[in-house]
């Protein structure tokens, strides 16, 4: 049985850009969820640092996740991130651990 491919991304907004970053990230949720290879796609906001956001994604495979970057809505997000983020994002790529 093939394991799912999990991606966790942490992004932090520049001062004063929190709402813009949140809107940009929210805009990719539904299109991502509608991809046939997407199992789960959620956006979270840190309770202690509202400028920090976490994307939690599950895909059927690493390859399926990589294809996501060819989508126009992800390219549009990528074009916006530099102006909205305080530094680079952190990404964790993982798979479930067998019990």
Q: How many DSSP-defined strands?
A: 4
Order of helical and strand elements: EHHEEHHE
Structural class: alpha+beta
Q: Quick one: biggest sheet?
A: 4 strands, antiparallel
- Span of the ends, CA to CA: 14 Å
The count of domains is 1
**Residue share in β-strands:** 25-35%
Using the 3D structure, state the CATH architecture.
2-Layer Sandwich
Strand order of the largest sheet: 2-3-1-4
Number of helices: 4
Give the averaged pLDDT, no decimals: 95
Low-confidence stretches: none
Shape: globular
Q: Over all CA atoms, what is the radius of gyration?
A: 14 Å
CATH class: Alpha Beta
- In which range does the helix fraction lie? 25-40%
What is the fold-level CATH name, i.e. the topology? Alpha-Beta Plaits
Strands, helices and their partners?
Blueprint: E1 5-12, H1 18-26, H2 29-33, E2 38-45, E3 52-59, H3 62-67, H4 72-84, E4 90-94
Notable features of this structure?
single chain, Alpha-Beta Plaits, 4 strands, 99 residues, 4-stranded antiparallel beta sheet, alpha+beta, 4 helices
